[in-house]
Amino acid sequence: MTKPKLDIEHLITVKFTNLIDDEDHFLQAAHLQNETITQLKLAHPILEYCLVEHFNFIACDFNKFEASNTIFKNCDFSNCQLDQASLYHVSFQNCKLVGTVLDHSYFNEVSFSGCLMDLAALNKCQIKAAEFIETHLEDASIDDTKIKKISFDHCQLNQLSLMFTKLKGIDVSSCQFKRLEVDYTQLRGLIVNSEQAALLGQLYLGLKLTD
């Protein structure tokens, strides 16, 4: 996965009000840190070549949110509406996105590392390239989504819903789950370990295992 291209030493430190006050809600080459934004509704905010650290977005609505070559570190987007987002070369590091809505979004070279994304919604998305590393996705949903390239590395996926999403070539063998919510007809080609294969066989094919 290609990392965001950032010249961190030359970023200009600004406040989030710079984005709000800009007529086009656009920020470029900016460093934002240590703020809490509450219940803000903002249409089509755009971040390019930005570093955002220790930010709390509380119940915000950023429809058509757009970010490219941007890093989010230790940020909280829980219960935010980020539907129809466009994310290109974006990295989320140790962020909270619990219950965050990212439906109808586009992901290209997007990384989630050490994130908490339980109950997050990524439905009806287009995922060209995305990776999830040591990330919690319990009770999250990636339903009816078109996936070209996606990886899950040591993630917690219990009760993750992948309904109406083609699973061929997706590798979850390093992950943990007791159940996946899937259309069993789409299981063909999903890469799993032997324990997971036995579990899915019991859940969806009615197989009975003996010692």
TrEMBL record:
Classification via InterPro entries: 5peptide_repeat, PA_immunity-related
Pfam families: Pentapeptide_4 (PF13599)
Gene3D superfamilies assigned: E3 ubiquitin-protein ligase SopA
Protein name: Pentapeptide repeat-containing protein
